[in-house]
Amino acid sequence: MSEAVARHTSFAEMQCPIARALDQAGEWWSLLILRDAFQGSSRFGEFQKGLGISDNSLTRRLSDLVGKGLLERRAYQERPKRYEYVLTDAGRDFLPVLVSLAQWGKKYDRPEQGETWVADAQTGRMMLPVFVDRCTGEEISGHGVVIVNTAAGIQTARPQVDEMATPSSSTECSHPKEAS
Questions:
Q1: Which end of the chain is more exposed for a tag (fewer CB within 10 A), N or C?
Q2: pLDDT digits (tens, 9 = 90+) for 10-32
Q3: d(CA 93, CA 88)
């Protein structure tokens, strides 16, 4: 049975970092491959067993994740030559995205069908991650926040947001209006 290859429009040149991130790893099999990598899978057969994906699809997606810098392909055996796929720094930095998806799914989409937890790899201690503001320590939810794209010419539906000054770095903790 041949597998149809769905082509999507590339978001790589869009000015929105969300769109560009989706271009890097937004395809659902890619997200599941990254999930399995965080669960300890690194070899082709491990990914295939865990996902039930065809050889061709898995090969294409692993190559894509390597090409986009989320996984690194390393030889682990010389004869016959075999490779493993390990998370890069960019791949490891993707963890909060996967955790957020898991938390959302656990809360809204059939929570009775099992849970996913985050655990310390050394101790096995279960962790309860939260999304917090670095400056205030307050938990961030979907209430009372907006996403501001600072790319030139991009405007939000709320003009007062467009008037905000932009912090000079992602670690700056002054209020945007105080920064001007």
A1: N
A2: 777 777 777 777 777 767 899 99
A3: 8
Residues 6+ apart with CB under 8 A from 73: 62, 66, 83, 84, 85
How many CB atoms within 10 Å of residue 14? Answer: 16
Q: How far is CA 23 from CA 28, 47, 59, 88, 106, in A?
A: 11, 21, 18, 17, 25
72's CB contacts (< 8 A; 6+ apart) are 66, 85, 86, 87, 88
Return d(Cα 3, Cα 53) in angstroms, integer: 11
**Identity at 57, one-letter amino acid code:** S
Dist. CA 62–CA 72, nearest whole Å: 9
Q: Residue 94 in contact with residue 37, Cβ under 8 Å?
A: no
Q: Enumerate the H helices of 86-172 as residue ranges.
A: 89-92, 95-108, 159-162
As a whole number of angstroms, the distance between CA 29 and CA 116 comes to: 17
Going by DSSP bridges, is the β-strand pair 82-87/118-119 parallel, antiparallel, or unpaired? unpaired
Backbone dihedral angles phi then psi of residue 82, each to the nearest 5 degrees: -135, 150
Question: Residue 57 and residue 63: Cα distance in Å, rounded?
Answer: 10
pTM as predicted: 0.75
